[in-house]
Specification:
Blueprint (H helix, E strand, L loop, with lengths): L1 E5 L3 E10 L2 E11 L2 H4 L8 H20 L5 E5 L1 H5 L3 H12 L2 E4 L2 H15 L5 E6 L4 E7 L2 E8 L3 H8 L7 H16 L10 E4 L1 H14 L10 E3 H12 L19 H15 L3 E5 L3 H10 L3 H34 L8 H10 L3 H10 L2 H5 L2 E2 L2
Parallel strand pairs: 1-4, 3-12, 4-5, 6-9, 9-11
Antiparallel strand pairs: 1-2, 2-3, 6-7, 7-8, 10-11
Helix pairs in contact: 2-4, 5-11, 5-12, 6-10, 7-10, 8-10, 9-10, 12-13, 13-14
């Protein structure tokens, strides 16, 4: 299954395979296309931008077919959903690409993110957020299901465009952004009291990357990574001290240097509103959830995969701790039963086992899980 997402900040093709171990993410290509910036005063995407979106979708679709993927689904989120000429965008992109094209409403977008959380992490109850470029989805999980989803127009790029026009932003601009987010979250006091918080989306992954690099953590991914509230606050301070271009030196992806500060402020506001001690990062997101929904993987696997994988990781971490590096090589000589060995080893490393972390770094196992990252 290929999911091609036209997002508010990037357009991304993600390729998946399904099998006994569940849904496997094999490859991903990303094109920076900040649609929120192109919306006119009338709320429309200009014709030349619509044409550019169509060209990108056509090229990504061709790439997927050359790679052997025939089952492709194109979805769009906030920027196109909110555009006054959304129907024109859909018509042109669908006509030129030949792909099934669907604009996800806020609830469907949030439910897909929640499904990614419950499918890959042992999270049954709590809150999650999916922070994109154009919108923020807040969700409540109970017994592994989305009990509630709210969509707010508080995306990282949208807030940056509307509030952080100066470089560096002044106290008044920062205060206006934070007040806007805080005021919006007051209406959703159901967030407070949840036992845990999980973050989805490129912004939270980028914040985790900044923290990982600052602390010297050897694993090159953020799935399952824990960001304390203090770490998020420190991240805000580091980002404030640098210009957007200089933020790349912290590890911020180039296409996020202009929105990462706004995103960090939004994440900090969510932590404060809910009284959370920190946020667990989910490295899987909307595209993973949509692929699950389209393929229709059985509900029991959705419910239990994350917990089972995490339990395996705990056991693996204990084995590595007890038996050392020789045991690592033995474990890696054959696939681990049921789940993907590289995901499990990465999860074990995130539980604090340094031997697992070094093995991941030495053998570059996670490279196969990440797949190729290309841009056009």
């Amino acid at each position: 299954m290929g999911i091609l997402e036209v997002g508010s900040q990037t357009t991304t093709l993600a390729l998946f395979r399904s099998g006994p171990g569940g849904l496997r993410h094999t490859e991903q290509l990303r094109v920076a296309l900040p649609l929120v910036r192109y919306l006119t005063a009338a709320g429309e995407l200009p014709p030349e931008v619509v044409s550019k979106v169509a060209r990108v979708v056509v090229e990504l679709g061709r790439y997927a077919r050359r790679r052997g993927w025939r089952r492709l689904q194109c979805v769009a989120t906030s920027a196109i959903r909110d555009a006054a000429n959304a129907s024109d965008v859909v018509a042109e992109v669908a006509a030129r690409s030949g792909l099934n094209f669907e604009i996800l409403d806020g609830r469907r977008e949030g439910e897909a993110a929640g499904l990614a959380v419950t499918s890959t992490l042992p999270v049954r109850d709590g809150c999650f957020f999916d922070l994109g470029g154009g919108s923020l989805q807040l969700g409540r999980l109970r017994a592994g299901r989305c009990e509630r989803v709210e969509c707010l127009p508080l995306g990282a790029l949208r807030m940056a465009v509307q509030h952080l026009r100066q470089d560096p932003p002044g106290p008044a601009d920062l205060g206006a952004l934070e007040d806007r987010v805080a005021d919006a979250l007051v209406e959703h006091d159901w967030v407070r009291g949840a036992r845990q918080l999980v973050g989805v989306g490129g912004t939270i992954r980028a914040l985790a990357k900044v923290h990982r690099l600052a602390t010297g953590w050897p694993i090159r991914h953020s799935h399952g990574y824990w960001l304390s509230a203090d770490a998020v606050h420190e991240g805000v301070q580091r980002l404030l001290a640098l210009s957007p271009k200089a933020r790349a030196s912290l590890g911020v992806p180039r296409h996020r240097v202009n929105s990462i500060l706004a995103g960090a402020l939004i994440v900090r506001a969510i932590l404060r509103a809910g009284g959370f001690e920190g946020v667990r990062v989910c490295g899987f997101g909307l595209r993973y959830g949509v692929a699950h929904q389209v393929i229709g993987i059985a509900a029991p696997e959705q419910e239990h995969r994350g917990a089972a994988e995490w339990a395996l990781a705990v056991g693996l971490a204990n084995q590595l701790r007890d038996r050392g590096r020789a045991r690592i090589d033995g474990l890696l000589s054959k696939p681990l039963p049921g789940w993907y060995q590289e995901e499990s080893l990465a999860a074990a490393a995130l539980l604090g086992n340094e031997e697992a972390a070094r093995a991941m770094d030495r053998l570059d196992l996670f490279e196969g899980w990440r797949g190729a990252r290309r841009s056009t």
